[in-house]
Amino acid sequence: MSASRPAEGSFDAAAGRRPTLTQVAALAGVSLKTASRALNDEPNVAEATGRRVREAADRLGYRLNGIARELRRGATSALVGLISGDLTNPFYSAVASGIERELRQHGLQLVTANNDEDAELEQSLVDAFLQRRVRALLVVPSGEHHDYLAIEGNRGVPFVFLDRPPDEATADAVLIDNVGGARAAAEHLLAGGHRRIALVADLARMAPQRARIDSFVAAMKAAGNEEWEPYLRTDVHDVRRAEETVRELLELEPRPTAVFTTNNRLTTGALRALRGHTDPPALVGFDDFDLADVIGTTVVAHDSVAMGREAARLAHERISGFRGPARTVTISTTVIPRGSGERPPR
Questions:
Q1: Which Gene Ontology molecular-function terms are recorded (predicted)?
Q2: Beta-strand (E) ranges in 127-276?
Q3: Collapsing DSSP states into helix, strand and coil, what is residue 42?
Q4: Domain locations along the chain
Q5: Is the bond leading into 254 cis (omega within 30 degrees of zero)?
Q6: Terminal CA-CA length for the chain
């Protein structure tokens, strides 16, 4: 049986060829200029001609690029950009969800890109979004310096920083109470009688991680506890390395009686390392995650969706004309005891 062939002038999806305005004009029997005017609802196009052009466009599956058309006319788009870390991380996907829900109420659409914790990539993504005239740009920064934003003058586009405060740039920001959350976790474990408390942290150069590390250390010093110091591990950046790190900690003598992990990925790695242990150390993780309540993992929780909503709200207010000073919104944290963080020291 022979394979069917697409009708002449139609969009061949298998071949990846999209219909062009030239094909629409040819099928409708009009000039390219007339086809363009008809599809853009411009005046001085006969009703019958316009109908014939639209029917040809429908037959071919041709669609106007509305965004490009508006940009050519000098208008801004209805798009708001988000540059974040890996969206497969539940934290970033929850933030994006909150942003999208809030923007939708104002007729705005969210487009996203990952910076992969690469400062140079982040800067190129910022430039790409600005070239496309997004209405606002939300950034979870990977780099430590943002002076290039001041040099560019933002091109009139408002910026909102999430999770990490801007450096060398004045902009709105939505941050987590990293200091309060880490202190609460440390105090929770100290109150449970733990002294040999391991700290497993992500990249220390990142502001949120630095704040969590410093706050944990301050809580240990305030309690007069020095027994935790041999168990400090930083720059543990993914699940696999977290699992390896916690396994290594458990081989020490004496081993830690408790572990505090500073984000959800590291908590996942710790849980894998503790799987099957008959006498595991206590565990508290920063960031809640799916099924943490089911498996009984104590966490420092915060509302990531609310974080996204707040960022979108600040952006929309700037788009709508607010010209006040830069604002910072802090998302609160709370320790949720579920069992893993309440194991006694042994």
A1: DNA-binding transcription factor activity; transcription cis-regulatory region binding
A2: 136-139, 159-162, 172-176, 197-200, 232-233, 258-261
A3: coil
A4: 21-63, 79-176+304-331, 178-301
A5: yes
A6: 74
CATH architecture of 79-176+304-331: 3-Layer(aba) Sandwich (3.40)
* CATH 1.20.1580.10 is right for the domain spanning 21-63: no
Provide the residue count of the chain: 346
Q: What is the per-residue DSSP string for 95-126?
A: HHHHHHHHHHTTT-EEEEEE-TT-HHHHHHHH
* 122-153 pLDDT per residue, tens: 888 888 888 788 899 999 887 666 666 654 44
How far apart are alpha carbons 334 and 179 in whole angstroms?
12
| Contact predicate 272/241, CB 8 Å | no
Q: At 181, phi and psi to the nearest 5?
A: -65, -45
Question: Residues 39-79: pLDDT tens digits?
Answer: 877 888 898 998 999 899 888 888 765 555 554 555 557 89
| Cα-based angle 192, 193, 195 (whole degrees, multiple of 5) | 120
From the centroid of its chain, how far is CA 28? 46
> By the 8 A CB rule, do 177 and 300 touch?
no
Rg of the chain taking only CA atoms, in angstroms: 27
CA distance 309 to 320: 16
Does residue 249 contact residue 256 with C-beta atoms inside 8 Å?
yes
Q: Which residues pair with 260 in a beta bridge?
A: 199, 284
